[in-house]
Design a protein that fits this description.
The chain contains nine helices and no strands. It has helices at 3-36, 42-49, 53-59, 63-88, 92-108, 113-117, 127-148, 158-169, 180-190. The chain is globular. Helix 1 (3-36) packs across helix 4, helix 4 (63-88) runs antiparallel to helix 5 (92-108) and helix 5 (92-108) runs antiparallel to helix 9 (180-190). The chain starts with a helix and ends in a 5-residue tail after the last helix.
Length: 195
């Protein structure tokens, strides 16, 4: 093995470590946002991540940068789960139901994020389009697979389903008598085609 090969391997390992560290930091920030909202002190996020405050500011100079990164990270995790669930679930319907469950998790854990995303900060402007561009095709693929298998109605569009799920999740967590996940489960069950 030549010197350049060893250098390439070391460089690749460092890049992989940096990506893993950033994912850990984003996971910690997401957990902190869930627990205390998007205005949680950066020192609390740093403590969760096991890093110094300076490390967070080095990666994300502003709170808006951190919020956007956490949001994009969580959208990507939801998008990547779709094909995996389709490949590993017993049926396409089971994959769709599990993915919708993950989507609900994504929606109901956005304490304060909706308000931040609707602020005048230009950093947040493109996030809604990004959300739709990444998640609607994943939902469409799952719906199409389930419809092709004869498990769900073929006349439901992915955007329509996601919008319905989103509407059922509005206000979740503010009223202990309201269980969004149960109502979403009823919606998903209503998609089923029975022989």
């Amino acid at each position: 093995m030549g010197e350049s090969d060893r250098g390439s391997q070391t460089s690749a390992r460092k890049r992989a470590d940096a990506r893993r560290n950033e994912r850990s930091l984003l996971d910690a920030a997401g957990a902190a946002f869930l627990a205390a909202g998007v205005d949680v002190p950066v020192r609390d996020i740093a403590a969760r991540a096991g890093v110094g405050v300076g490390t967070i500011y080095r990666h994300f100079p502003t709170r808006a940068d951190l919020i956007v990164a956490v949001y994009r990270h969580q959208v990507e995790a939801c998008a990547e789960a779709g094909p995996t669930l389709l490949a590993t679930s017993n049926t396409p319907y089971a994959a769709l139901a599990r993915w919708i469950d993950l989507f609900v998790d994504f929606l109901v854990t956005k304490h304060g994020l909706a308000e931040a995303l609707q602020s005048d900060d230009a950093t947040f402007e493109a996030l809604h389009a990004y959300f739709l561009d990444r998640l609607v095709p994943v939902c469409a693929r799952l719906l199409d697979a389930a419809a092709t298998a004869g498990e769900v109605r073929p006349d439901v569009a992915a955007y329509e389903l996601m919008r319905g799920v989103g509407n059922l999740c509005i206000g979740a967590g503010r009223d202990p008598r309201y269980e969004a996940r149960r109502l979403v489960g009823l919606l998903i069950a209503g998609l089923r085609r029975y022989p």
